[in-house]
Write a structure and sequence with these properties.
CATH architecture of the largest domain: 3-Layer(aba) Sandwich
CATH class of the largest domain: Alpha Beta
CATH superfamily of the largest domain: HUPs
Strand content: 5-15%
Structural class: alpha/beta
Radius of gyration: 22 Å
Mean pLDDT: 97
Number of domains: 3
Number of strands: 5
Helix content: 40-55%
Distance between the termini: 64 Å
Strand order of the largest sheet: 3-2-1-4-5
Largest sheet: 5 strands, parallel
Oligomer: single chain
Low-confidence stretches: none
Order of helices and strands: EHEHEHEHEHHHHHHHHHHHHH
Number of helices: 17
Length: 429
C-alpha cells in the first residue's frame, strides 16, 4: 500500500498544486496536514510577534477553505497547533504512512523545521520535495547554476523573457474514493488560540478580503474579467486609497492559495480575448519581480537576513527606541510616512508606494537598522512573503539589488502620489 502524507506549507490550494496532484495520481491512501507552528506566533529576534493578527486571521480563513476544498477530493486535512516534528510522526505511525510530500522551502526558519522533522520521522519513510512557488520553475531558467543569476533585476527579467517559458496550470486533482475521507477530529484554531484578540476590519481598509483559494480565485475573476481593472493597472498601481488601484493578489500568493502561474495564464487569456497593453504586461512584470527576490534568496541564502545584506556593506546603523516608536505609531515629521504607518497598524496593508517611502525614511533618512523595519513588516503585513519582504528591505536600505542605491524625497513623493492629500486625510485624521 502506498500511503502518502501531504504536508501543506506555503502552498495552501488544490488547483495547480504539483505536490498534491502528483500524490493523488500515485497513492492508495492520502491524508494531509497543516501545522500552525507555535514558533511562527512567538516573538522574533527584534521584539515583534512573527505573525501578527492580520496575517493570522487571513491564514485561519485560508486553512478553513483548504479543508473544505480537500474534503471535496475526499482528502482529510489534519490540523495541529503543535510543531510539525512533534505532530507529524504520530500521524505517520497511526496511518502507516510510507511517503511524505511537501513543497520545498529554503529560507532559514523553514529549513530548520524541515531538518527537525526529518530527524523525528522513521528513516523508512520516503521524502519527496519539489519547488512549486515560482513563476519560472528553477529547472526552466536559462542559468546553469545559481551563481549565474544576475544581481540586477533588468538583466534577470530580460533573460527570462527571452529564454524561459512559464509552465501551464495543471488544474485540480481527480477526487479520491470516498473511503479515503477518514474521520478527523482536529479543529481549526481561533485567533485567541494563536495569541491574538478578535478584531473587526477597519472600514477604510484597502484590503477588505478573505483568505483562501476560493476568495483568491474570485479576486482574479473580479479584477481581471469582471471589472477589467487590469487593463489600466499600470496607470493605477501607484494608488493609495481603495481596493482596486492594484490587484492585491500578493496576500494569496504569499501563502500559496494562488499560484503565480494561475495569474500569469489568466492575464495571457485576457490579452488574447479582450485587450493586450502595457498594463497587462506590467502585471507579468511584477510577477517576475516576485520571482527575482525568490531567486536572490535561493542564491544568497541567509545573507538576506544579515545586517550587511547580500552586498556585505558596512554602514553605521543606529538603534534608537524613540525613533522606532514614532515610526510605528505614525508620529514622524512626514505626514505621508505617518499615514502609511497608521494604515499598516490599522489594516495589515500598505501600498507598494508607501512601503518604499517608509523603508527609505527608516533606513536612509534615520539610518536605523533595516532589519528592525523588515521584522516589523513581517509581523504586520497580511501579505508577508519572506523573499519579497527581506529582498525589498535590502534593496531600499542599500545592501541589496539596487545598483543606484537611491533615497526617496518623501515630500516630493507625497506631492506626486497624493496630490490632493486624500490618503493623508483618510489616515491622519
Amino acid at each position: 500500500m502506498k500511503n502518502s502524507l501531504v504536508w501543506f506549507r506555503n502552498d495552501l490550494r488544490i488547483s495547480d498544486n504539483s505536490v498534491l496532484t502528483g500524490v493523488c495520481a500515485d497513492s492508495d491512501k492520502v491524508i494531509a496536514v497543516y501545522c500552525f507552528d507555535p514558533r511562527q506566533y512567538a516573538t522574533g529576534d527584534f521584539g515583534f510577534v512573527k505573525t501578527g493578527k492580520y496575517r493570522a486571521k487571513f491564514l485561519i480563513e485560508t486553512v478553513t477553505d483548504l479543508k473544505i476544498q480537500l474534503s471535496r477530493l475526499n482528502i482529510p486535512l489534519f490540523i495541529s497547533l503543535s510543531r510539525p516534528e512533534d505532530y507529524i510522526p504520530g500521524l505517520i505511525e497511526a496511518h502507516d504512512i510510507k511517503r511524505i510530500h511537501f513543497q520545498e522551502e529554503w529560507t532559514r526558519d523553514e529549513k530548520n523545521v524541515e531538518d527537525q522533522l526529518r530527524r523525528a520521522i522513521p528513516e523508512t519513510v520516503e521524502i519527496f520535495r519539489q519547488f512549486d512557488q515560482f513563476l519560472f520553475h528553477p529547472k526552466d531558467i536559462p542559468f546553469e547554476n545559481l551563481s549565474q543569476i544576475p544581481e540586477v533585476f533588468t538583466a534577470f527579467r530580460k533573460k527570462l523573457e527571452k529564454y524561459a517559458e512559464v509552465r501551464r496550470v495543471i488544474g485540480t486533482p481527480k477526487a479520491l474514493p470516498k473511503e479515503n475521507l477518514i474521520e478527523n477530529r482536529s479543529e481549526l484554531p481561533s485567533l485567541t488560540d494563536l495569541g491574538h484578540d478578535d478584531f473587526s476590519s477597519d472600514s477604510r481598509s484597502a484590503f477588505p478580503f478573505q483568505g483562501g483559494e476560493t476568495a483568491g480565485l474570485k479576486r482574479i475573476d473580479d479584477y481581471i474579467w469582471e471589472s477589467e481593472n487590469i487593463s489600466k493597472y499600470k496607470e493605477t498601481r501607484n494608488g493609495l486609497v481603495g481596493k482596486d488601484y492594484s490587484s492585491k493578489f500578493s496576500a494569496w500568493l504569499a501563502n500559496g492559495s494562488l499560484s503565480a502561474r494561475m495569474i500569469y495564464w489568466a492575464v495571457r487569456k485576457f490579452e488574447k480575448e479582450r485587450i493586450k497593453n502595457s498594463s497587462t504586461y506590467w502585471m507579468i512584470f511584477e510577477l517576475i519581480w516576485r520571482d527575482f527576490f525568490k531567486y536572490v534568496s535561493l542564491k544568497h541564502g541567509d545573507s538576506i537576513f544579515h545586517l550587511g545584506g547580500i552586498l556585505n556593506k558596512d554602514y553605521h546603523w543606529k538603534n534608537d527606541r524613540a525613533i522606532l516608536q514614532n515610526w510605528i505609531h505614525g508620529k514622524t515629521e512626514y505626514d505621508f510616512v505617518n499615514a502609511n504607518m497608521k494604515e499598516l497598524a490599522a489594516t495589515g496593508w500598505m501600498s507598494n508606494r508607501g512601503r518604499q517611502n517608509v523603508a527609505s525614511y527608516w533606513a536612509k533618512e534615520k539610518e536605523q537598522d533595516w532589519r528592525v523595519g523588515a521584522s516589523y513588516f513581517e509581523s504586520m503585513l497580511v501579505d508577508y512573503d519572506v523573499h519579497s519582504n527581506w529582498g525589498n528591505w535590502m534593496y531600499n536600505a542599500g545592501v541589496g539589488n539596487d545598483p543606484r542605491d537611491r533615497k526617496f524625497n518623501i515630500q516630493r513623493q507625497a506631492e506626486m502620489y497624493d496630490k490632493e492629500g486624500s490618503f493623508r486625510k483618510l489616515w491622519n485624521r
